[in-house]
Amino acid sequence: xxxxxxxxxxxxxxxxxxxxxxxxxxxxxxxxxxxxxxxxxxxxxxxxxxxxxxxxxxxxxxxxxxxxxxxxxxxxxxxxxxxxxxxxxxxxxxxxxxxxxxxxxxxx
Length: 108
Known about the structure:
about 110 residues, mainly beta, 3-stranded mixed beta sheet, about 30% strand
Protein backbone atom coordinates (compact mmCIF):
# COMPACT_ATOMS: atom_id res chain seq x y z
CA UNK A 1 0.00 0.00 0.00
CA UNK A 2 1.51 3.35 -1.08
CA UNK A 3 0.96 6.66 0.69
CA UNK A 4 0.61 10.06 -0.93
CA UNK A 5 3.59 12.41 -0.52
CA UNK A 6 1.67 14.85 1.72
CA UNK A 7 -0.13 12.31 3.92
CA UNK A 8 2.49 11.70 6.61
CA UNK A 9 1.09 9.88 9.63
CA UNK A 10 2.85 12.21 12.12
CA UNK A 11 3.45 15.93 11.57
CA UNK A 12 7.10 16.59 12.53
CA UNK A 13 7.62 20.26 11.55
CA UNK A 14 8.14 21.28 15.22
CA UNK A 15 9.86 18.08 16.40
CA UNK A 16 13.24 19.76 17.01
CA UNK A 17 11.80 22.63 19.09
CA UNK A 18 12.84 22.63 22.76
CA UNK A 19 9.97 22.58 25.27
CA UNK A 20 9.61 22.54 29.04
CA UNK A 21 7.44 19.94 30.69
CA UNK A 22 5.90 20.85 34.01
CA UNK A 23 4.15 18.91 36.72
CA UNK A 24 1.66 21.27 38.31
CA UNK A 25 -0.75 21.17 41.26
CA UNK A 26 -4.29 19.92 40.55
CA UNK A 27 -5.77 23.35 41.31
CA UNK A 28 -3.57 24.88 38.56
CA UNK A 29 -4.50 22.18 36.04
CA UNK A 30 -8.23 22.70 36.72
CA UNK A 31 -7.83 26.46 36.36
CA UNK A 32 -6.09 26.02 33.01
CA UNK A 33 -8.77 23.66 31.69
CA UNK A 34 -11.34 26.43 32.14
CA UNK A 35 -9.34 29.20 30.43
CA UNK A 36 -10.22 31.02 27.21
CA UNK A 37 -7.72 29.97 24.49
CA UNK A 38 -6.81 33.57 23.57
CA UNK A 39 -5.99 34.58 27.16
CA UNK A 40 -2.53 33.99 28.69
CA UNK A 41 -2.39 31.24 31.33
CA UNK A 42 0.67 32.26 33.30
CA UNK A 43 4.14 33.66 32.90
CA UNK A 44 7.46 32.28 34.02
CA UNK A 45 9.77 34.81 35.68
CA UNK A 46 13.51 34.19 35.76
CA UNK A 47 15.34 35.87 38.64
CA UNK A 48 19.12 36.13 38.52
CA UNK A 49 21.25 36.87 41.57
CA UNK A 50 24.19 38.93 40.23
CA UNK A 51 26.18 38.43 43.44
CA UNK A 52 26.42 34.65 42.98
CA UNK A 53 28.66 32.94 40.42
CA UNK A 54 26.75 31.78 37.26
CA UNK A 55 27.65 28.12 37.88
CA UNK A 56 25.93 28.24 41.30
CA UNK A 57 22.48 26.63 40.81
CA UNK A 58 20.93 28.95 43.38
CA UNK A 59 21.86 32.00 41.28
CA UNK A 60 18.83 31.32 39.03
CA UNK A 61 15.28 31.04 40.33
CA UNK A 62 12.13 30.43 38.31
CA UNK A 63 8.66 31.49 39.43
CA UNK A 64 5.33 30.94 37.68
CA UNK A 65 2.82 33.74 38.11
CA UNK A 66 -0.79 32.86 37.31
CA UNK A 67 -2.61 35.25 34.99
CA UNK A 68 -6.13 34.29 36.07
CA UNK A 69 -8.13 36.36 38.50
CA UNK A 70 -10.31 33.53 39.76
CA UNK A 71 -11.99 34.10 43.10
CA UNK A 72 -11.02 31.86 45.94
CA UNK A 73 -8.00 30.86 47.92
CA UNK A 74 -5.77 29.84 44.97
CA UNK A 75 -2.10 30.89 45.13
CA UNK A 76 -1.08 33.30 42.37
CA UNK A 77 2.65 32.49 42.41
CA UNK A 78 4.54 29.19 42.42
CA UNK A 79 8.25 28.49 42.83
CA UNK A 80 9.50 26.15 40.07
CA UNK A 81 12.19 23.56 40.66
CA UNK A 82 14.20 23.21 37.46
CA UNK A 83 16.07 19.99 36.78
CA UNK A 84 18.43 19.07 33.98
CA UNK A 85 18.49 15.41 35.11
CA UNK A 86 15.50 14.27 33.08
CA UNK A 87 14.77 11.58 30.54
CA UNK A 88 14.34 13.13 27.07
CA UNK A 89 10.66 13.10 26.03
CA UNK A 90 8.63 14.29 23.07
CA UNK A 91 5.36 16.22 23.30
CA UNK A 92 2.53 15.13 20.99
CA UNK A 93 -0.78 16.76 20.11
CA UNK A 94 -3.68 16.23 17.76
CA UNK A 95 -4.16 18.82 15.01
CA UNK A 96 -7.52 20.28 14.04
CA UNK A 97 -7.48 17.88 11.06
CA UNK A 98 -7.12 14.84 13.33
CA UNK A 99 -3.44 14.22 12.59
CA UNK A 100 -0.87 13.52 15.30
CA UNK A 101 1.85 16.18 15.59
CA UNK A 102 5.14 16.32 17.48
CA UNK A 103 5.21 19.70 19.28
CA UNK A 104 8.76 19.52 20.58
CA UNK A 105 11.24 17.69 22.74
CA UNK A 106 12.40 18.11 26.34
CA UNK A 107 15.80 17.27 27.71
CA UNK A 108 17.82 18.27 24.66
